[in-house]
Amino acid sequence: MGNDNSSAITIDVDRNNLFYYSGETVFGIVRLNITDENLETREIYISLIGEIGYTTLSSSGRFGSFENENKIKFYYKKVSLSGPSITQQEFIDDCGRYAWLFQIPLIDNLPPTINQPDTFPRVQYFLQVVIDKSWYTSNIKYKKYLTIHPRVNLLENPQCLLPCIFEFENRKDIKLKATFNKLGYIFGENIQFTLEIQNPRKILILHSNLSILKCYQIESKFDEYIVYKTILPKIVNLTNEHIMERFSIKIPSIQLPSYKFRGGDPKIFVHIYYRIKLTVKVEGIFNNFHINVPIILGTEHNSDLNQQQSFNPISISYSSNTEQSIFNDDDLPPDYDIVMRSLQ
Fold it and tell me: Any idea where the domains of the chain sit in the sequence?
């Protein structure tokens, strides 16, 4: 990518999957094959760049609006390979072939890679080799993309390991109570909860759905999509006055960890969070209702889970008025931190 006819560049790193956690070090080697004997360079260097990308709409009067692509660097580490200040060992082969070893440490607090490099919005990381030539000629550049995730230890937020109760009542006096054993999980772990429904009017409950949604915000651009959805078994076409069932749902393993990142520029804002959406489908018009349960997905195992669960559960109740029984899915859902702060 970006090579010209006078040189060929490759970057090889120490991991075939190109995946790193923040706080680790990227080791690799840069190989350069120069075919132009008269190629003059001021410096050759490699850098690791973290960049967010998002779009904005601009108006151009009679021509209507058009979309601008914005890119902002939030992370930059440079290592000189050849030039006035050489920082890496240089290997010279015959026929103009060169090679340099490099290592670039990652800081601890970095947002995760989001979306593909050619899509917006996105968070991306890449290694870039630059051959800085004379001022009157174009530089030669070559990129290699990496995937970087932060480490998220659930023990740093012990409140997410407490049991939590969510309650709601719709306008037909149907009361829903969902009790979760905790709200912090790692990938591949099971979400365990009890669903209890009080139905004094014996209205037909058609079924209940559970969805896990991934939500992310980059700058001011928000998006969410469903990563898992199922109809809960045993709660189908029931008119019982009292229903109580226990469930265990496995979290899909290939997801981003929950994370919030702010850079020096106010536009550098990245937020990844998740929520469980429990929906109860009830016979009749405007009787359906749902509750949102914010959860945290971490990367580190929790060794003190049994001890954490000995505390009293947190209880969250929703108002039972008619207006709140019909939620607007266009509203941004609260994340875990917002819900927990509201209880303090």
Answer: 8-149, 154-302
> Which residues, at least 6 apart from 13, have a Cβ–Cβ distance to it below 8 Å?
26, 27, 28, 127, 144, 146
pTM, entire model: 0.81
Helical segments of the chain, H only: 305-308, 336-342
Q: Which of 191, 207, 180, 199 is nearest to 290 (CA)?
A: 207
Phi, psi of 217 (to 5 degrees): -130, 125
pLDDT digits (tens, 9 = 90+) for 218-257: 998 899 999 999 999 999 999 999 999 999 999 887 679 9
The H or E element spanning position 237 is strand 221-238
Report whether the peptide linkage leading into residue 150 is cis, meaning its omega lies within 30 degrees of zero. no
The residue written with tokens 């898992």 in the block is 228
Q: Please work out, in degrees rounded to the nearest 5, the angle formed at the alpha carbon of residue 306 by the alpha carbons of 165 and 343.
A: 30
Kindly give the pairing relationship between strand 314-317 and strand 164-169: parallel
3-state SS, residue 90:
strand
Which phi and psi (to 5°) does residue 251 adopt? -80, 130
CATH 1.50.10.10 fits 8-149, yes or no: no
Cβ atoms of residues 66 and 105 within 8 Å:
no
For the domain spanning 154-302, the CATH number is: 2.60.40.640
Residue 253 burial (10 A CB sphere; 0-12, 13-18, 19+): exposed
Three-state DSSP class for residue 193: strand
- Measured CA to CA, the distance from residue 66 to residue 323 in angstroms comes to 38
328-344: per-residue pLDDT in tens? 444 455 565 655 555 44
